[in-house]
Amino acid sequence: MPKKRVSLTNIQKYKFCLYACDNKKTQSQYVNWIEEKWEIRVDESTITRILQSKDKRLAIEVINPEAKRHKAVVVPELELILKEFVLTYQHRTILSDAILVEKVKQLADKLNVSEGTLQFSSGWLQKFKDQNNIRQIKLQGEADSAK
User: InterPro entries this protein is in (predicted)?
Assistant: First the structure.
């Protein structure tokens, strides 16, 4: 019977790295510690992989603690500017998906991001919104009456 694939969440990996900094143990001891703490059995190869990126994991903020996989942002500057745009305008107007995609395309042009580097698909947009905790909000007060 094939083994079921098990993944630790980002926050679990982060906590494991903290533990590993303070407790020098063997791979099998780390496997047992994870099993006792989270009732998850991982391979020693998983321990090795996580520890290889320990310094990087501890240096960055855990943005999405429940995520199990991390795909690097291709153009971080672009996403940061788009996030600032959303935070600035989300309470003044309705920012539809179409508006956000159009805005990110304009920003990509300004930043000279070569065509084809990014696909501004609905999947990309949804991940961007999830990572940055962006939700459609109903406008209140004056902004609402301006419609």
Answer: Homeodomain-like_sf, HTH_CenpB_DNA-bd_dom
Task: Give how many domains the chain has, as a whole number.
Answer: 2
| 67 in any annotated domain | no
Mind listing the pLDDT tens digit for each residue in 7-49? 888 889 999 999 999 999 999 999 999 999 999 999 999 999 9
Residue 69 lies in a domain: no
- Measured CA to CA, the distance from residue 38 to residue 12 in angstroms comes to 8
Query: What is d(CA 139, CA 132) in angstroms, rounded to the nearest whole number?
Result: 19
What's the Cα-to-Cα distance from 96 to each of 15, 35, 52, 56, rounded to whole Å? 37, 44, 41, 35
Cβ neighbors of 105 (< 8 A, separation 6 or more) are 120
Cα 6 from chain centroid?
Answer: 19
How far is it, in rounded angstroms, from Cα 100 to Cα 122? 10
Pairwise CA distance, residues 143 & 140, whole Å: 6
Same domain, 17 and 50: yes
**The two three-digit tokens of residue 141, written as one number:** 């007060």
Which DSSP letter does residue 4 get?
P
Dist CA 109 CA 86 (whole Å):
18
pTM (predicted TM-score): 0.48
